[in-house]
Design goal:
4-stranded mixed β-sheet; alpha+beta; about 20% strand
Length: about 260
């Protein structure tokens, strides 16, 4: 059983905005410290950013408008905690506590991810999808149910009828769709809106990709300040995740579909 949402779901819109702000921080510094929370809906986008580099409000607003439309932007920016900054000043160390589980992606999860991407390529609007054995449920906004039924004749399609989604209908919040982003690898930490020093980003990516490579579950834990995880220097874990994010095209692109 697996649920997948597409990049226009309000929660994913929030993730993309958070990712775009992290991208802005990385344009200002090689290793910024940043954590962004986004709440969006009904004409307003609220953002709180804890950051070691100052982000221009005009750039923040431009990112919101590009991703989500001409919404009112309520932006609050505060510096990173001084104690945390001092403790990380002498090298790359784990930025938070956490437990992490990487799980191999199942064939069911791969199938639904492909279906979600195929539908989104035609209908780039808010949508969410479930696959449970032979039961396929497709909820796609701004798409005629009859057209979807021709493509997926055995699916349950828009059970309450055609609908219009997006942030005028629903709110979105950062890291609220981790099940869609990580499948069975879901942990307590969110993937989006954070810099690479945060284990929620780098260790989650590392554990997930190691599980795909080995075909076996990977379980890891770390404490804030650790200089090694899984027997590897934490700096290597960060660089591993940095390459993965870079290959995708940045944190905003990573937020579109997550890891699955």
């Amino acid at each position: 059983m697996f649920e997948k949402v597409n990049p226009c779901h309000p929660d994913k819109v929030a993730d993309k905005i958070a990712g775009a702000l992290v991208d802005l921080a990385y344009k200002k510094a090689k290793n910024p410290r940043v954590a962004v929370e986004v709440l969006i809906g009904h004409g307003v986008c609220h953002i709180i950013a804890e950051t070691s580099v100052k982000l221009d409000k005009a750039d923040v607003t431009a990112a919101v408008h590009r991703i989500a439309g001409k919404l009112a932007v309520d932006y609050a920016e505060v510096p990173q905690d001084g104690h945390l900054a001092d403790n990380q000043a002498d090298g790359v160390r784990c930025g938070d506590n956490g437990i992490f589980k990487g799980m191999p992606v199942t064939e069911e999860q791969k199938t639904l991810s492909k279906i979600a991407r195929d539908i989104f390529a035609v209908y780039s609007f808010d949508g969410k999808y479930i696959l449970d054995g032979d039961r396929l449920i497709l909820c796609q906004s701004n798409a005629p149910s009859d057209a979807l039924r021709k493509l997926y004749p055995d699916a349950e399609i828009n059970p309450l009828g055609d609908w219009t989604g997006g942030t005028d209908v629903d709110t979105g919040a950062t890291n609220r769709k981790l099940g869609s982003d990580m499948a069975d690898s879901v942990t307590g930490g969110g993937l989006h809106g954070k810099d690479l020093s945060k284990a929620d980003v780098s260790v989650n990516i590392y554990a997930f990709l190691k599980a795909q490579k080995t075909g076996r579950p990977v379980t890891l834990c770390c404490a804030i300040g650790d200089d090694a995880v899984d027997g590897r220097p934490y700096e290597e874990i960060v660089e591993f995740a940095r390459k993965y994010i870079s290959d995708l095209g940045g944190f905003e692109k990573f937020a579109e579909w997550g890891l699955v």
